[in-house]
Fold this protein.
Amino acid sequence: MRLFGRKSEPVEPAEAIAGFWTWWAETRPLIDGHVEAEDAEALAETIGPAVTALDPSLVWEIAPGTLARHALVVSASGDPELRSFAHRWALAAPPADELWEFHPSRQANPQASALTVDVGGREFGLDRLVLGLRVPPGTPRVDVSAFHPIFPDIDDDTRMEATLLALDWLLGEDEVARWVGDIVAAEFEPIDAVPAVHLPAVVADVAGGFKDEQWALLEGQTANGGKLAAAARYPLRPVDHPLFDQHVAITLPYANADADGLPAGASLGSLRDFEVNLTERLGALGTAALVAHLSAERSRVLHVYADPAGDAARAVRELAAAWKEGRATVEVADDPSWSAVAHFLT
């Protein structure tokens, strides 16, 4: 079930989350009663406004739990601006018990093949859903073309909503964000379609090729026509680091460059040493990661994403202050969608 609404007054995220869990503790006896009575309307009237008070764009549902009987899911529903907020909401949740557990995204359902819902007045179930699957060579994604016998009779938006729901049932919302690329809700059955229940196995096979850390090397041109060289983690996906919504950009000028303005000689070694020290420092903190760097016109910019509750920004500033080939600068900004590295995102 989903509810949307508007907040009357802005509330700080930490305050809103704390307020929700205070409300939950006070209201839980009533909620438990509604669940036991299977009163969906009363649950919507009780829980919906509390989730809306967190943020009106969040969606929620009550689903079967993994260990508990029920799970309360409060999800950003693919909105990168809200993903970290939903995860912080879940981290602040009370410990799971026999009745309730809490998740910041829809979880895969082991009984997915038996689930059915009403879609546009028609019965939609995974037992009749088929998928055309394509894995572009060397890429960490599976492109999906979905078809169900009711799809020719419903509109485009409803077809896509049903498809996304089915993918979440099969993989879980975060795994869809990690591994599923292009999604088409087709009016006609793909020629090479397979039953939808095969998708998790295909995704697991693709994921098996990306277990170890990898970096992609890229070349290009600056706006002025100069040469640039970049490196980025591959795959690079915000969903892998949901709490890292703070962008820390380190700009290091270097003294030795080749004819294209790229680092050379002693400067290249100094930049490598800086990156090693930075990676080690961030690894020790455990609350940030270096995700990409770009060199051009006698300057290198390193992109770090961090949990703002951690100490990464201070650690970065300390390292940058010791740079000897020019004045290093450090800029810190909120960037939950990782827009600063949008060109590198998988």
